[in-house]
Amino acid sequence: MNTGDDVIISAALTGAVTPKDINEHIPLSPEEIAEDAYRCWRAGAAVVHLHMRDEQGLGTMDRERFAETIRLLRRHKDCDVIINCTTSGDSRASDSQRQAHVAMLDGIEMASWDAGSFNWMPGGVFVNSPQFLGQLGGILTERGIKPEVEIFDSGMLGVANYFVETGKLRAPLHYQFCLGVPGGMPASVENLHYLATHIPPGSTWSAFGIGKHHLPILFTALALGGHVRVGLEDNVYFSKGEKATNAQLVTRAAQAVRLFGKQVATPDIARKILGIPPLAAD
Fold first, then answer.
1. pLDDT tens-digit profile of 107-161?
2. Domain chopping of the chain, boundaries
3. Fewest C-beta atoms under 10 Å: which of 64, 140, 153, 221?
4. What is the pTM of this model?
5. What's the pLDDT at 236?
6. CATH number of 6-274
């Protein structure tokens, strides 16, 4: 467990599916995503988790869209936010398409590594084969990109351990507990406590709950000594019937951290906690 006083807030801005019809504040273009990321950093996010959308608003693993978003975000010279890119932003993408950006682009400091496959109800199978995970782990390790080990169910902890033992991932790991996804582990205090107490000593972890489970899991993560993730990828409402913005969700998370008696981690502090090298100067 994290026993320090600094709490990392991650902002998951976009996701791959939810349309603007549901919440008009969801950023879709590289320009919108970069500007929303900047606003979230100003509100207290140390990490921004990036998905890309195509011209139709659907999730895409287009390498050039990642590159353009990173370029636009880093155009803000004062912004030192940690850039964390998805590797599972399009169910239609091949394994090679899912890895192209992390294999070739500079400026990516973290990337998701989803620790297994499961039935993402009711849409289909979320596929992360052992072969893909081994290839992706090798790329991230070779390029010095910190894996964000996404855990949707308890059995995935053993999958992550396997790839540490085989050298494809390097301990200590950072885990992201993804709770409340239909087909995954339900978002409950008991389940988060189980996951947080069954990871190797020295690990770091963060958590989020989908939709209405957003706040209960946020508060539980703070109580258990973890870090937190918020954003429109996971929850589109600020309160019942009130649509949220990403910056609003980050601001509330920062307030919760401070009310809990802790402090919001800066990107520099977050890099030290996560074992990420300092941001290189231009």
1. 999 999 999 999 999 999 999 999 999 999 999 999 999 999 999 999 999 999 9
2. 6-274
3. 64
4. 0.97
5. 98
6. 3.20.20.70
